[in-house]
């Protein structure tokens, strides 16, 4: 079924000039980007997004990292978009991510792992609501 997922190019991806590469990989896969913007994540937004991690020991570092430079937020839509994007992204830790995945090809950090993708359809709904309003979501006409 067609799904939507929330993707972020994280601050390290933006600073390393990987926005274009990441957007290309999503487009090459045939998924539709139906919303896209750059923003600075605030501490408040970080706590909302990472609600399930706020109590974890690594959260303070995660918050300083995610608020350190802009992110590029996107909604990606297509058949099984949530799991397809997770496959393209690779394992959380860049040292364990398979070559051919975004994290496997470009990074070796567990925290500065360049990209975020929602882990389920339910988290995608929640995360999309945090980053985007309905009027920022675009619809495509018939396929070209
Ligand atoms: P993400 O998939 O965006 O979701 C949670 C983020 O927390 C994760 O990517 C990493 O950036 C970070 N993270 C997860 N586990 C750890 C950990 N053990 N130590 C440091 N950062 C982590």
Automatic annotation (TrEMBL):
One of its GO terms (molecular function) is ATP binding. Its EC number is 2.7.4.6. It comes from Fuerstiella marisgermanici. PANTHER family: NUCLEOSIDE DIPHOSPHATE KINASE. NCBIfam families: PRK00668.1. Residues 2-139 form the Nucleoside diphosphate kinase-like domain. The gene is ndk. ATP binds at residues 10, 58, 86, 92, 103, 113. PROSITE patterns: NDPK, NDPK_LIKE. It is found in: Cytoplasm. One of its GO terms (biological process) is UTP biosynthetic process. Homotetramer. The active site is at residue 116. Keywords: ATP-binding, Cytoplasm, Kinase, Magnesium, Metal-binding, Nucleotide metabolism, Nucleotide-binding, Phosphoprotein, Transferase. Belongs to the NDK family. It is an enzyme of class 2 (transferase). This is Nucleoside diphosphate kinase. SMART domains: NDK. Its cofactor is Mg(2+). It catalyses: a 2'-deoxyribonucleoside 5'-diphosphate + ATP = a 2'-deoxyribonucleoside 5'-triphosphate + ADP; a ribonucleoside 5'-diphosphate + ATP = a ribonucleoside 5'-triphosphate + ADP. It comes from the Bacteria. Major role in the synthesis of nucleoside triphosphates other than ATP. The ATP gamma phosphate is transferred to the NDP beta phosphate via a ping-pong mechanism, using a phosphorylated active-site intermediate. The lineage of its organism: Bacteria, Pseudomonadati, Planctomycetota, Planctomycetia, Planctomycetales. One of its GO terms (cellular component) is cytoplasm.
């Amino acid at each position: 079924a067609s799904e939507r997922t929330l993707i972020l190019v994280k601050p390290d991806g933006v600073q390393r000039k990987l926005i274009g590469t990441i957007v290309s990989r999503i487009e090459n896969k045939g998924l539709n980007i139906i919303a896209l913007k750059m923003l600075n994540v605030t501490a408040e937004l970080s706590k909302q997004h990472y609600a399930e991690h706020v109590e974890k020991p690594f959260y303070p570092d995660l918050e300083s990292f995610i608020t350190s430079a802009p992110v590029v937020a996107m909604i990606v839509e297509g058949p099984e978009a949530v799991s397809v994007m997770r496959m393209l992204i690779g394992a959380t830790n860049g040292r364990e991510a398979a070559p051919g995945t975004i994290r496997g090809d470009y990074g070796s950090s567990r925290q500065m792992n360049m990209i975020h993708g929602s882990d389920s359809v339910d988290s995608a709904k929640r995360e999309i609501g945090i980053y985007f309003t309905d009027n920022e979501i675009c619809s495509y006409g018939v396929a070209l």
